Amino acid sequence: MNNKLGLGALTALVLSTMVGAGIFSLPQNMAAGAGPGAVMIGWLITGIGMLGLVRVFYSLSIRKPDLDGGVIAYAQAGFGSFLGFNSAWGFWLNTLLANTSYAVVVFSAIGYFTDTPDNIIFGAGNTWQAFVGATVLIWLMHYLVTRGVKEAALVNIAVTFAKLVPLCAFLGFTVLAANMDKFSFDIWAQHNSELGSVMDQVRYTMSITLWVFIGIEGAVVLSGRAKDRKSIGQATIIALLIALVLYVAVTLFAFGVMTQQELAELNNPSMALILEHIVGPWGAWIINIGLIVSVCGALLSWTVVTAEAPLVAANLNLFPKWFSKENAHGAPITALTASTLGVQAFLVMTLFSESTYLTLVNIATSSILIPYGLSAAFGLKVALANKDYSNQGLARYWDLIAGTIATTYGVWLIYAAGLDYLLLVALLYLPGLAVMLWTRRSQHESLVQHKYEWLGITCIVLMSLSALGLIFQGTLSI
């Protein structure tokens, strides 16, 4: 099967997976809950945490070359099949929800060109017209990936370069228009008491910064399709640095064009309205077209990764074996079809939800915490064991630091996510338990293999029941 991905394809895949819809709304999203000073601290924390996580991914790709499948394989190897399964299930949920959110936001952006106050066609992406369009879009992506992962990755390289053009245009104009007096005015947002303390503002930024970095693990999930192991870590680091520079620049220069309160009041995609403020209406057209191209590219990337997640889990005996079936082009056809049907099911939800995009984003963000946290902890565990370094003391030293940073960052993210979304994610983990038990039974294994698994199962069930109770009371919404 000639389906191997090189450094360029892997880098484009990871970059396109990360740089999707989120960047186009970053200025307003950040300003809605934080001043420029807190935003800078937030990016500093996130940058350090993500660099630690990327170092863990890079090290594990070298130290554990036998572990193909990234965050899924790392969780299983480090902490057993129960946590391995839940890591796989959480990662798959994240990809399904991310794909759904992208399909929704594409038609929300198209609505900028088609909708009027008296004639709403696509609205916020949850009208019946948007549902039909999103359905066609996800099955088109399905078809592209059935032609083979390599072919889809080649299309993605072109899309990645195409979407960088409006982003670079935005940065160029905002750099020229930025005024340091506006940036430094009330830098800690103390004139706006609704934002709370600086610590509250920093915590607020965490959920947003995590969302825009989700996808950083794309290369390690596809590690089995990489031409060589070094390309995995190199692609991840290159993509991270490019994305970090883009995110920081887009956010901070926006504070030099408008004040925090002005940015917070913008509609999204706020980047379009900022450029319109600088150069006129054509600026908004450029950004909205760029958003559509960007999100379609991210959707293609996520479709590749979404199909790969259950395939990897099946190869690790965590999911039923039929997920591992591939077609003549080397595409995981059964996993891909199941994934597209999963996205279709979530799209049906959008017809009955008022806060669709934001809800999907927050649940998707919370669902990735287990895979990220377990990967970081496994990296730290490998460094502490000191069995894979062959007198490479300096490398182990850096891996210990990176593992500690990444694990601490993972714990902090769980705190920052908030209880509501953790409860909703537990509700989505509940059907996963049935899949796990079914898989074990089909493999003639014990349904519950360790005492600690009872604790995990009990926690998921109790949190799910709590979520259902709060939903019926009307205090928790989907």
Automatic annotation (TrEMBL):
MF terms in GO: transmembrane transporter activity
Subcellular location: Cell membrane
Principal subcellular localisation of the protein: membrane
Organism: Photobacterium jeanii
The UniProt record lists the keyword Transport: yes
GO cellular component entries: plasma membrane
Family, per entry: Belongs to the amino acid-polyamine-organocation (APC) superfamily. Basic amino acid/polyamine antiporter (APA) (TC 2.A.3.2) family.
An annotated GO BP: amino acid transport
Keyword list, A-Z: Amino-acid transport, Cell membrane, Membrane, Transmembrane, Transmembrane helix, Transport
Protein name (Swiss-Prot/TrEMBL): Arginine-ornithine antiporter
Membrane topology: Multi-pass membrane protein
UniProt-listed Gene3D superfamilies: Amino acid/polyamine transporter I
Transmembrane segment boundaries: 37-58, 120-141, 153-178, 204-223, 235-258, 278-307, 328-352, 364-385, 397-415, 421-440, 452-472
Top-level taxon of the source organism: Bacteria
